[in-house]
Amino acid sequence: MFKSTLSSSASLLSRRCINVGSSSRKAASSVVKNNTLDYPFFSSVNRLFHSNRLCSDKTNMLICFGSQTGTAQMFAEGLRSELLGKKEPWLANVKVVDLNDIEPEKAVEFGMQEGNGLYNVVLFVMSNYGEGQPTDNAKQFYDWLMSDSSTKVLQNAGKKPHYAIFGLGNSANFPERYQAVGRKMEKRLNDLGLSLVFKRGEGDDGGAEGIETDFEVWKNEFVQFLKEQDNGTSTSQTCSVPPEKPKESEGLPPDTTSNGKYFFRTLEFEKYRDKLRQFIREYDSSQSVSPKNPYSLLIDSAKNLCPRSSRKRLELEFAIDNTPINYETGDHIALFPMNSPDLLRRLEKILKLDTPMDRIIFTLQTPPCSIESPPFVATPEKPVSLHQVLSQFYDLNGVVTPTLLTFLAEKATEESEKAKLEQLRSVEYLSGVKNRMLNIVDILEMFPSIRVTWQDLIGVLPKIQPRYYSISSSRLENEERIKRGEKQILRVTFSPLVWPQPDGRTFYGLCSNYLGTLKSHDYCQSVVRTSSFRLPQNPMTPILMLAGGTGIAPMRAFIDERRVLKQKNPSIKFGPSVLLYGVRDETEIIYKDEIEMALKDGLISDFYVSFSHTHGKMISDSIWEHSQLIYDILKTNKGHMYMCGGVAGFGTKCYDALKKVVTHIDNAPAEAGDAFIDLMRKEGRCLRIWLIKLLKAPILCKYSSRCN
């Protein structure tokens, strides 16, 4: 296999193997060693490598993902499940790993050939974040790859590792930076003499076919390529040891089931009900707060900011006293949603369960030989209910993927339904599934011959990912609240997504509608994400703020920040500060009184509102209308620009308007406008929180490819 990359020299990996003994079984926390991060978790990958040493002419695959809210992770885990489910004779094993959980050097070294007929392939599934940056979980790896540290490792390796890259992006947002992460990774590897083993793939969330179809096409070609390298030499099944039924634990019922991936053991409801915990993702106070260890925040208040509007604009106020949650003004908060009760009721009916979901309590474990950890803790000491798992952990609301449709087609008992599912998986995916926003429950209702158990679903459903929202309160405000003996708070402002479909159905965004059901004294799991969305240190630096809809949230936090600064130092002066705000009509303006007071107090200098529905005016029109003012702020006085929210195309239209202003006033060619925007970005004066387009529906989100 991979004849062009064969080498007889020993693999660098073999010289750097992690001990799989007792040291690797310690708590899975990263430890700094020699200025690098050592992850005991990687021992499982090392175990994958060595558990198949006796295999002949087989491939081990490590799939590393860089994902902001789950799309890249979903693709990676879906490919793994598909490959292992097919038991390809050329495949030894597949491991999926979060790039944040692996030392960068180890991920690259794994792609080096070991010998004895065993080959390793590393597939990087990489999402673009923002204007061409790596995602949070991939930043450490990406920075290392682009640094001199990787040069020293790879140029001295004497190997030609086996790599493949699939990038995720959106060509509608900043086409000049489309697929920047994947393309730069490929160039970097090429510069180091490490060519890709297969052509780089690109998924376009703004393209006609859709990102899922793009991945499906590339994935099939990639897998076919791997098969062809085998040349028919691998005739046996995969080398993984078949799972053995685990020995029964004392005091547990004997009935054990398996979905081929996990073992399940049902428990007596009355005996174990008191051991159920509130959240499956239970916070561990010995670890820092993270997406894998979220903290449950108490909601202090919930209110509708626009009672006269047909569309809700909601604000949640979280109490953060005596919690590990800290933030700076301009940061984001990740909130974990739950599936709606309606979806759960529909699914429960489809599954035809003998026992209600909330009374099915079980444990889950992987086979003894497995390299994979359980997706969540489900032991006799900490069991879970089926209702908890399907409401908190697995996403029932998202659009079904082609991979999931393939699985469902295999479970259909009627040939006509099987054939239709195959069509939906391939040629009709965009029109028949994605554009209609069909989820797993919709598909199961449409095709009643599909026979699946709840255990089957736990093996294939994508995990719920947190959604990110701008924090609409100021950290400095909390300092003043402490002085007054008041609670510290964290505010989030959002609008529940309700999207009527042409066929009469309605799509409800998972997180925004879940948050809309919360009330005072409820809890929501969360983690704060640090942002670069910061006010200039010099208060005299001019600023331009562009906000659409609930994109006013971080601007409101900035205004609160300045209000506190003014209270502390009444003589403080602020430079020109312009806020352009876009809404559909007057009923949708939020924080109007606060903004007008800020204008009166000199916290901002100008405030203009654009009404898209009643006046047909967009923020881009307002930019042109006040062109000289904006030119003076951004170009003459080198001010900062902040952008958040709006309808689909909001950012592009605003940038186009700014370019038009610059070229008009300077009497310069169009290229001058592009150069000016690029200069602002390089100087850190152009900051944006991302609007993501879900098909044709505008959604205010904060930087991912899958946010609703």
TrEMBL record:
Output the PROSITE patterns linked to this UniProt entry: FAD_FR (PS51384), FLAVODOXIN_LIKE (PS50902)
Which residue windows does the record flag with biased composition (Polar residues)?
231-240
Q: Per the record, GO CC terms?
A: cytosol
Its needed co-factors are: FAD; FMN
Q: Which Pfam family would be a valid example here? A: FAD_binding_1
InterPro entries named in the record: CysJ-like_FAD-binding (IPR003097), FAD-bd_FR_type (IPR017927), Flavdoxin-like (IPR001094), Flavodoxin/NO_synth (IPR008254), Flavoprot_Pyr_Nucl_cyt_Rdtase (IPR001709), Flavoprotein-like_sf (IPR029039), FNR_nucleotide-bd (IPR039261), NADPH_Cyt_P450_Rdtase_alpha (IPR023173)
**UniProt entry keywords in alphabetical sequence:** FAD, Flavoprotein, FMN, NADP, Oxidoreductase
Q: Work out whether the entry's keyword set contains DNA damage.
A: no
Listed GO molecular functions? flavin adenine dinucleotide binding; FMN binding; NADPH-hemoprotein reductase activity
Highest taxon above the source species = Eukaryota
Which top-level enzyme class is recorded in the Swiss-Prot or TrEMBL entry? oxidoreductase
Flavodoxin-like domain ranges (all copies): 61-223
- Enzyme Commission number(s) from the entry: 1.6.2.4
Gene3D superfamilies documented for this protein: 3.40.50.360, NADPH-cytochrome p450 Reductase, Chain A, domain 3, Nucleotide-binding domain of ferredoxin-NADP reductase (FNR) module, Translation factors
Show where the FAD-binding FR-type domain sits: 292-543
Q: Where is this region: Disordered?
A: 230-259
State the protein's name.
NADPH--hemoprotein reductase
Q: Which species does this protein come from?
A: Naegleria lovaniensis (Amoeba)
